[in-house]
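BUG: 3D viewer hangs when loading the predicted structure for this chain

Environment: internal workstation, default settings.
Expected: structure renders.
Actual: progress bar stalls at 90%.

Input used:
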Amino acid sequence: MSDSKKHLKFIGIVQGVGFRPFVYRIAKENNLSGWVRNIGDGVEVLFSGEQGRISRAIHQIKFENPPLARVDQVIELDEVPTENPIDFNILKSPDDTPSAILVPPDIAICDDCKRELLDPENPRYRHPLISCTNCGPRMSILKDLPYDRHTITQGEFELCEFCKDEYSNPENRRYHAQTIACNECGPKYSFGDLKDYDAIAKIKELILAGSIVAIKGIGGYHLACLAKDFDAVEKLRELKKRGDEPLAVMVASIEAVKNIAEISEVEEKLLASWQAPIVLLKKSKDYNLSENIAPDTDKIGVFLPYTPLHMLLMENMPPIVLTSANLHDEPIASSKEKVVKGIPILSNNRVISHPIDDSVCDVIFDKARVLRRARGFVPETIPLKTKKPVLALGPQMKSTFCFAWNDQALVSQHIGELSNPHTFERYSDTLKSFRKLFGFKEEVVAYDMHPGYTNTIHKNELTNITDFIPVQHHHAHIVSVMAEYDLHEPVIGISADGIGYGTDGTIWGFEFLVSSRSEFVRAGHLKPFKLPGGDAAVKDAGRIAYSLLSEIGLQDKAGIEDNLAGTIPIMLEKNINSPTTSSLGRLFDAFSYLAGLGRYSSFEAQLAIKLESKFDKSHPTLQFPLTDMGDHFEVDWRLALTNALSFPEGIPGGFHKGIVMAIINGVRILRDKTGIRKVALSGGCFANKVLTNMVFSALTKMGFIVYINHKFPPGDGNVSLGQAVIATEILKKRSN
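C-alpha cells produced before the viewer hung:
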C-alpha cells in the first residue's frame, strides 16, 4: 500500500499543555513520519504513512488528548508539503508566530503528578515542585520567549542525570517539561534550616498550633491560618489591614468542600479544573468555619490545592485560610521583603518573574463566570480584528490593561487599586514587562476619561505615544460584552456599578445605553443625587441616605446623630464637595443602611453583599417608576425610598425586585424605540447573582437575547478590553 500525506491544523486548547509530545507519541505508535509544531492559532501537523494509520492517529488526537488539551476543530490544509520525511519530529514554531500564543498560563498540578507525589516508591515522592508537560508554573516564571528552559527563572538550576534523561526522551511525559526537577535537583523550599517536606511539616505544625504563616506559591506569597480559629483569623485581618472583606479558604478535597458549602456539578468541575480558581459557593447548613472568615454573607470562597506544595500542605489538614500576604489594597507580594512583617515564612529559591493573584469565579446559568481574572486565565487572548496596535490603560479599581494587535486582544492579570502607589508601581512594571515579553509596541492609547484616575493622570509617562483616545467608562463595560460574543450590531446596554465619569462631568453608575462598538447614546439613567463628602460617602452610607431623604423632606429619618448631621445639610445646600451621581452602587448602599445592615463599608460593595444575602422574594416590590425626560428617561428612586421607610425589613427583597422591574421597563421602552432585541448587562452590580438571575430570566422570557460577561469579570476587570475594542473601531472609522 502506498503512503499518503495529511497536512492538518488542530485548533482548541493545544498550546502549552503537552500537545506536541502527545502528537509525537501517537505518530510513533502508528508508525508515521512527519512533524508537528505550534503556529499562531493552533498546532500544525504533517503526517506521512498508510492512510488507515493516519486516520487512526487523527481519531486518537481528537478523542484521547492530554488532560488539559481540547481539540475543537481539525482543518485539512490545502497545501501539502512535497518533502518525504523519514522520521517524526517536533519542530520549533515559525518566526512570525504571535508571541501571545507561545506564552502558556500557569497550570494546576495534574493527576499523574498527584499520584507520583504521594507514591513512596516514586523518585519524586513528596517533591513540592513536581511538574510535567501537563502542569506547573508557566507565565509566572517566564523571563523571555520562546518558552524554554533557559528563558524561565527555573533555568538557572542544573538538571540531574535522572531529570536530563526524562527531559530528552520524546516518549516521556516530561519531554521538554521546562520546569522539570526532582528531590535531587532544582529549586528547594526552606524554613530556617529545614528543607522541602521537613520544612512543610514544620509549617503545618505551626498552623495547627494557631499561628499565622506565610507561604510562597506560584504567583506570590500567601498568609495561612486555621479556618476554624477565630483569633487567628482576626489576627490575620489585623496584619493585612483587611477590614471585613471575605477571605478565601483552601480545602483538601471535594468531599471536604461538601462539609461547608453547597456545590453543583458545574461548580465541582470548576474547582477541579486546571485553572483551579477560587470559587464562590453558597454556605451549607453544616458550615462550621470561623464566623469572621466571610461575615454577613451567605457565600464562601473555596479552592482546592493546585500545586504540589499545597497538596502536601493540605494532607490530613482541616480547611485553612489562604490569602495574599500583602497589605490590603497593595499588590500581591512576590518577595520576602514585601510580606507583612513578623510571621514565619516558608519560601523557595525560584524567582517569580510575573506576580499573579489567584483567580476568582462563580457559576451562573450553569456556566463558569470569572470575577477576578488572573492565574490560569492569563495570558489567554480573544479574537479582535485590529487596525493598529492599541494599548488600553484600563480603570482605576480592579485595574488591568489590554494589548490589541495581530487580530487579538490580551488583557493583563488583575493588578488592583491604582490609588495605592505600590499598586501603581506594579501596574507600570507589569506594563513594561508585557511589552517586552509579547513584543508589543502601541501606536494608539485608549484611556478612561475620568480626569482623576491615576493612569489617566500619568498616561504620558506610561507611553511615548501621543495619539490618545478617551473612552467613557460604562460604554467600555458594554463593549466588553460585545467583544466576548463577537457582537457587531447595536445592543441595549445596561451598565450598573459604583462610579464612572460621565460625558456631562457627573458620576454615572446606572446607565441605559444604545451602544455600538464605537459610540453610544445615553437613553436612560438613575435620577441623579448628591454624594456629600465625595469619596467619604462611598464608605459612609449614612451620608448617602441623608442626601436622598433630604430630596423628599425626610432627612430626619436618616438617623445620623453624630456631628455630620450639622455638616451635611450645608454641604448639600451650598454644593460643597458633593458631586452628582446616578450610581446604582451608591443606591444599594443607602437602601442597605436603611434596612439596618450597617453604615460604614470597609471594602467595595460590602453593604450590597449584605443586602443580596438577605434577599427574600416574598418582600413586596419597591417601585422605581420611569420618568420621560424627552430625549431620555430617568429611574426615579423617590417612591421606593418613601415606601422603604415604612417597611425596612422588606428592603432586601423589595429593592432587588424593584430595580429588576426598572431595568425591564427601560429595556422595553428602548426596544419599542429602536427595534433592538439584544441586551448586554455589565458593571460591578451584576456580580450580584440575585439581580443578574432575575433580570436575565425576565428579559429572556420576553424574547430578548441577553448577554453577560463570562470570560471577563462583570466589574472593572473588563474595562480595558472594552476600551481597546472601542479605540479599534474608532481607528477603522478614521481610515474610511
